[in-house]
Write a structure and sequence with these properties.
The chain is an alpha+beta fold. It has 9 helices and 15 strands. The longest helix has 31 residues. The protein is flat, with a radius of gyration of 33 Å.
Length: 332
């Protein structure tokens, strides 16, 4: 009887030893791998953990693959995380400098937005972040075309000639060649029976040239008048991420592959992305991210490519959206 009672009390200890030995030789339960969603997981050693949502950070990593650890919210006004994150701390909120003004407060999902004070600017394409004083006026024989803003000094252009003189010169330049062409055509018709047919061919060619010129003008418009510069309201990564989302939303799905191919993405890269990701919008976002990794990001080149594939109306819509969302500014 005493031996039976002793065996009963030793049972939990023996079970614990057996479980320890089973775990030590690797006999652990296997967890079926879930498909990785692009950018939603991070590695904790050999364990794949689900990232914490925007506004949180990883307080404790997961111990079982494809699960989420313990997430903790960032401190409002002190730090933030703008996207899903696997970091063990939030990012510190930016403090605006003395030469800047704060236009948007920091919250748990968005950093502080600062810009140069009125009367100063900081060029977006400059390596310096210092705000410079704007010029008060244009030099002699130049007039103001654009006022100073937070990212650009005033823009001055040469004074244009008197409009009356300009129109006289233009009219004279058109009238004289037209008279010469008319005389030549009349003379040619008299000498040749099929003169009218040949003249029609000449005018057809001229009209075709005019259409080509319109396309060139459209291309020039996107290259010069609509050239965009990144604002300094947000970090570069935040601007690029928001820009990707706008392109994904506005570029039609039927031509998205053609668009990224024109930008330099290979068919092999596109196929690999489609194999890893099922959702169409996530595929398109991943394609743009791959382009950014392959080459320097330039939103003006992307807009020109849209015009090249006959989507200039989409390019203009995207351009307007980028400016309205204060991601880019136009500088002529």
């Amino acid at each position: 009887m005493q031996s039976l009672r002793s065996s009963f009390w030793d049972l939990p200890i023996r079970c614990t030893i057996v479980l320890y030995l089973v775990n030590s030789v690797g006999c652990k339960p296997q967890i079926a791998q879930a498909p990785l969603r692009n950018g939603s997981y991070y590695m904790n050693g050999k364990i794949v953990c689900l990232k914490c949502p925007a506004g949180y950070f990883v307080k404790k990593d997961c111990v079982i693959s494809y699960t989420q650890g313990i997430c903790k919210m960032c401190n409002p006004g002190e730090n933030y995380s703008a996207h899903e994150t696997g970091l063990n701390s939030c990012l510190t909120c930016t403090k605006c400098r003395a030469d800047q003004e704060e236009i948007s407060y920091c919250n748990i999902t968005k950093n502080t937005v600062c810009r140069c004070r009125k009367g100063t600017y900081c060029p977006t394409n400059s390596t310096s972040t210092q705000c410079l004083p704007c010029r008060s006026s244009c030099p002699e024989k130049q007039v103001l075309q654009q006022t100073c803003n937070s990212t650009s000094d005033i823009v001055c252009v040469p004074v244009t000639p008197d409009p009356t003189v300009y129109y006289i010169l233009v009219s004279f330049g058109i009238l004289v060649p037209a008279v010469i062409i008319g005389i030549c055509a009349w003379f040619f018709c008299r000498k040749s029976g099929d003169g009218l047919i040949r003249i029609r061919k000449v005018f057809t060619k001229c009209l075709r040239h005019k259409a080509d010129s319109e396309e060139d003008a459209k291309e020039q418009f996107l290259q010069q008048e609509n050239k965009l510069y990144m604002t300094n309201y947000l970090t570069k990564d935040e601007v690029i991420a928001s820009t990707f989302s706008i392109f994904v939303a506005l570029v039609p799905s039927r031509v998205f592959k053609k668009f990224v191919l024109e930008l330099g993405l290979t068919k092999n890269e596109i196929n690999l992305i489609k194999q890893d990701i099922r959702a169409t919008e996530e595929q398109h976002y991943a394609m743009l991210s791959q382009l950014h990794r392959n080459q320097k990001f330039d939103v003006n080149i992307w807009l020109r490519k849209l015009a090249f594939i006959k989507l200039d109306n989409v390019a203009q819509e995207i351009c307007t959206r980028l400016i309205e969302d204060e991601l880019f500014e136009r500088s002529i």
